[in-house]
Specification:
Elements: E1 2-8, H1 18-29, E2 35-41, E3 48-52, E4 59-62, H2 63-72, E5 77-80, H3 88-96, E6 102-106, H4 113-117, H5 120-129, H6 133-144, H7 146-166, E7 170-173, H8 179-186, E8 194-196, E9 218-222, H9 227-230, H10 232-244, E10 252-256, H11 262-271, E11 277-280, H12 286-291, E12 294-297, H13 306-312, E13 317-321, H14 327-330, E14 338-340, H15 345-357, H16 359-372, H17 378-391
Parallel strand pairs: 1-2, 1-5, 5-6, 6-7, 7-8, 9-10, 9-12, 10-11, 12-13, 13-14
Antiparallel strand pairs: 2-3, 3-4
Helix pairs in contact: 5-6, 10-15
């Protein structure tokens, strides 16, 4: 049995997001493949580590105690979940000085995460939503020094990626479309330590075609309501375009989720006099997927977006902006969904209208999605993990 230790900066909470669910999937399925999985998290930039053992009192380990613990447990592999944002975990693992232990840095967020946010548009969004004077002062300084700030952040982040690559056994990406970006950042044409494993489906079962009999005229959004990244306001603009054209009659836009910008967006929807928009709290999204016909993703950047594969495995046709590389690993444009140029609201409204008005097209694309999402079935993805871990 190999022993895998996953380390991150949050305690596991299956309702909190995709990374949590992906970690939980590894913990559940890898032991059947001969790989024991343990989880630790840190709240202080990897100076101390909380040992997450089900049914046992929590233990907090110093870096020295962690080293002794990993040796005692015959640790073979450490899997880090922090690579996009920090090199702190990589440095901590390096300081452990465990030469026989392999270290994997997994990139859950896109390598374009920061470049997508280094824009005046993003800064305008942050200014709009923040009333704190010190925060606004910081935003103002970034605007005034924009070229220098953008260059500084880009250099800092690229240095983090290079440090993480040099000091890892494997750099694990979610999509082949991220590989050229990674190669350019670290200055290697064919980075030998770079592997790709997609995220698995959220649930074991892919729906049967019978689910299409129960679909309603609903367009669904499932999202954390943080508008600077998720850009739910673009979805409201899209709905307004269709409403003015008389295309939303009989259809509902249902938004499931909570977040700091929800009240603001609800006021925006009210001021736009939007009809047939329903706001739901954060909850299990499966009942909403089962009844929805179309899924809408308007984020400026994602890592993978499990909501797209969740929609496909429940017979919902996804539409997404071409705002991050992995979207092309999930959706085959025109076959099982649509990929629209980033922030092109009119184009997205046109594609959404096409699906809303054409039942035959919508059903065909939904059936294609039920088939194509099987690439990401849990056992198929766990097979890839098993091969990689046993070949390290």
């Amino acid at each position: 049995m190999k022993n895998l230790f996953i380390i991150w900066d949050e305690p596991l909470d299956l309702s909190a997001g995709g990374i949590h669910r992906c970690i939980a999937t590894l913990m559940r399925y890898l032991p059947d493949r001969g790989i024991n999985v343990h989880y630790l998290y840190s709240w202080d930039y990897y100076k101390t580590f909380h040992l997450d053992e089900s049914g046992k009192p929590g233990r907090i380990l110093s870096i020295d105690e962690l080293r002794e613990y990993l040796i005692a447990c015959k640790c073979d592999v450490i899997l880090g979940q922090e690579a996009v944002f920090s090199s702190s975990l990589t440095q901590a693992v390096k300081n452990l000085n465990l030469p026989d232990v392999r270290f994997i840095n997994q990139y859950h967020s896109s390598l374009l995460y920061f470049s997508k946010k280094l824009t005046f548009d993003y800064l305008r969004q942050e200014w709009r939503f923040n009333r704190d004077l010190s925060t606004r002062a910081s935003i103002a300084i970034r605007c005034l020094l924009y070229p220098f700030w953008k260059l500084k952040v880009k250099r800092t982040q690229n240095n983090i990626y290079r440090f993480n690559y040099i000091n890892s056994t494997v750099s694990l990406l979610l999509s082949e479309y991220e590989k050229p970006i990674f190669a350019k950042i670290i200055g290697k044409k064919s980075p030998s330590k770079c592997h790709v494993i997609p995220n698995p489906l959220s649930w074991e079962d892919v729906a049967t075609p019978d689910i299409l009999k129960h679909k309603k005229k609903e367009v669904l959004i499932v999202s954390r309501i943080y508008n600077s990244e998720k850009r739910i306001d673009l979805a409201l603009k899209i709905w307004k375009i269709l409403q003015l054209q008389g295309k939303t009659d009989g259809w509902t836009l249902r938004i499931v989720g909570d977040g700091i910008h929800k009240n603001y967006l609800m006021e925006i929807a009210k001021s736009m006099n939007l009809q047939n928009v329903i706001w739901e709290k954060r909850q299990d999204p499966r009942p909403f997927y089962k009844s929805a016909s179309i899924f809408l993703l308007t984020s400026i950047v994602e890592g993978w977006a499990l909501t797209l594969t969740e929609s496909m495995q429940t017979g919902v046709v996804p539409l997404a902006f071409d705002s991050y590389p992995a979207v092309r690993s999930i959706i085959t444009d025109g076959k099982d969904g649509y990929i629209v140029p980033s922030k092109d609201v009119k184009n997205m409204a046109s594609k959404l209208c096409l699906l809303m008005e054409n039942d035959t097209l919508r059903e065909r694309m939904a059936l294609n999605g039920l088939d194509s999402c099987r690439r990401f079935e849990i056992n198929a993805v766990i097979d890839q993990w098993e091969r990689m871990l046993k070949n390290l």
